UniProtKB/TrEMBL annotation:
UniProt-recorded name of the protein: DUF4149 domain-containing protein
Residues passing through the membrane, by range: 43-65, 72-94, 114-135
Keywords of the record: Membrane, Transmembrane, Transmembrane helix
Superkingdom, taxonomy of origin: Bacteria
């Protein structure tokens, strides 16, 4: 259970730090244009999503080999499902738009960004729930 708690809270901290702190603040920095911000964001989110995929893999292995209560299993599996949704459905749309912006085009704003933010909020709630349930299972 310690591995589950450690991974869940590390994952949670990274999502909070990147999605809800670094991302909005970078666009407030002097001289950071939309193109520069998007370029930085793509690199940062690629790294975050890679780390998230590794966390999901570690959790999957841990959940298979450890005796994890079902009440912990459910929010962990749901958080991983949200990550899969983000990576498979939302990020490709965002990447296509940012490709256009980085190429010098001025495409209309995308509602996919709002979908990504909404799924990040859901993922944070699920990770908090999974972490609290993990700690209360000891």
């Amino acid at each position: 259970m310690a591995v589950v708690a450690g991974v869940v809270f590390t994952w949670l901290g990274m999502v909070l730090a990147i999605s809800f702190l670094e991302t909005p603040l970078k666009f407030r920095a002097p001289d950071v244009t939309l193109r520069v911000g998007l370029g930085i964001g793509r690199i940062v989110f690629r790294a975050l999503n890679t780390a998230e995929a590794l966390f999901a893999a570690v959790l999957a292995v841990t959940l298979v080999v450890a005796d994890v209560p079902g009440r912990v299993l459910a929010p962990v599996v749901a958080a991983v499902a949200v990550l899969v949704l983000q990576l498979a459905a939302i990020r490709p749309v965002l990447n296509r738009r940012s490709d256009r912006v980085l190429a010098g085009d001025d495409p209309p704003r995308s509602t996919a960004h709002l979908g990504y933010v909404a799924t990040e909020v859901v993922k944070v709630v699920l990770l908090v729930l999974a972490g609290v349930l993990t700690l209360s299972s000891w």
